[in-house]
Design a protein that fits this description.
There is one protein chain. Helices cover about 40% and strands about 15% of the residues. It has 17 helices and 14 strands. The chain has an eight-stranded mixed beta sheet with strand order 4-3-2-5-1-6-7-8, sandwiched between helices.
């Protein structure tokens, strides 16, 4: 098969059809395959690329994408050629696999994705195993100086956990994916701490009475040295990631860089989003009215986001959609009661239907919308009468992904 833009698009559609992703299909048997044996076999068949580059391994309930991007930005600012593997993507599949260099960032070329998918026997592999193998092979071929690798889910059984990194990081622990990781923060912490490796320094972004004993026990069992970000003398500063949790994420990244013995360039860290192409973290899509989008989707993240919105004291318009497997009962009490909501269901089978979402949010000022595009349009119309409002778009990665495209001037369907 010869590479063309159309053949690439067809191959990517076939990948999603034959190897369902968690992003599209949820944690079904076809999309989620916990365990490392399949990934180890794939890696061995590729020539063990996981062993051919230095790495930093990052897990956590919230903040792991931001911390990974901060580390990649800082390392590139120190003159290194950095691989960056994160998930999920928002607009383009290739966002998952990036090269971050002193001169800028780039996504894996379409031709490289095409070559991998046509050359490898991927039968029986999960979507995440495939993307992880693709990332590891490309980073090895690019001879990166170091790669920052974000886990997909949990840590202990995550496909990325075949790495032998120079540093492991757990950013935060919250209640999310409880059916798979455990129903308590301590149980989830144990899964995340599964990335700890013998002799490899482990850094935790937060310390609290419920999870710290778990981390300490796992570190002792590895054994490995354990550190907490709060014990480092880090001076926070402003960055282009302005979300509610970014100061803590920055402290974690600064502590990680200190453990690595790499000087943290303020300028590189201050421009993390620009240096790495990170999107959807309290991102301003429009200034007037002020339109903010954020991918926070679980109770710990949304509690912080909704609190920040309430504390602004400004009129609130919220375009909101959620996946059916999320804990709406826990999220609902956090939602600002004086906001006006435009309820949406993003594309895909995992989304909670708008009618059910509206029924479960009775008592709030809600308008049911036919699509994300319709919800954003209606919210922007409502904002014309409230020039000092904040229009917040969130509740799901998928809502944010669709919304970002609507504000892209190169998109034929842009607003």
């Amino acid at each position: 098969m010869t590479f063309t833009e159309s053949s690439y698009d067809a191959l990517l559609r076939a990948l999603y059809a034959r190897h369902p992703s968690v992003q599209d299909s949820g944690f079904t048997a076809g999309a989620y395959k916990p365990g490392l044996e399949g990934m180890r076999r794939l890696d061995a068949g590729l020539g063990s690329p996981s062993t051919r580059f230095r790495s930093i391994h990052v897990a956590g309930t919230n903040g792991k994408g931001s911390v990974s991007s901060m580390l990649a930005a800082a390392l590139s600012g120190a003159g290194l050629r950095v691989g960056l593997y994160t998930s999920p993507h928002l607009v383009d599949f290739r966002e998952r696999i990036k090269l971050v260099e002193p001169g800028g960032w780039s996504m894996i070329p379409r031709e490289e994705v095409f070559r991998f998918l046509t050359e490898q026997d991927l039968e029986g592999r999960s979507f995440f195993e495939i993307t992880t193998g693709l990332a590891f092979q490309w980073f090895a071929r690019q001879e990166v100086d170091i790669a920052v690798i974000e886990t997909g889910l949990g840590g202990r059984l995550d496909s990325t956990n075949i790495l032998n990194p120079e540093l492991t990081v757990v950013t935060s622990i919250g209640l999310d994916h409880c059916a798979l990781l455990g129903g308590t923060r301590s149980a989830i912490a144990a899964e995340k701490a599964g990335i700890f490796k013998p002799g490899v320094p482990a850094l935790c972004g937060e310390r609290d009475p419920e999870t710290a004993p778990v981390f300490e026990a796992r570190a002792a069992a590895a054994p490995c040295p354990l550190f907490f970000a709060e014990d480092f003398d880090a001076e926070p500063f402003a960055t282009d990631l302005t979300g509610p949790c970014q100061e803590q994420n920055l402290r974690t990244a600064l502590a990680a860089l200190e453990l690595l013995g790499i000087g943290a360039g303020r300028d590189a860290l201050a421009h993390t989003a620009a240096r790495t192409g990170l999107r959807g973290r309290w991102e301003r899509l429009l200034e007037r009215p002020e339109v903010i989008c954020d991918i926070g989707h679980n109770p710990p993240a949304l509690e912080i986001n909704f609190r920040r919105l309430r504390e602004s004291g400004r009129p609130l318009l919220i375009v909101y959609g959620i996946m059916a497997d999320k804990d709406l009962d826990a999220i609902r009490p956090m939602m600002p009661r004086d906001a006006r909501y435009f309820l949406v269901a993003p594309q895909g089978d995992r989304a909670l239907p708008v009618a059910e979402l509206a029924a479960r949010l009775q008592g709030l000022d809600c308008t049911a919308c036919s699509s994300v595009q319709d919800g954003v349009r209606q919210a922007l119309d409502a904002a014309k009468d409230r020039p000092d409002c904040i229009l917040y778009i969130g509740g799901s990665n998928f809502v944010v992904a669709e919304a970002i495209g609507l504000f892209n001037p190169d998109n034929p369907t842009a607003l």
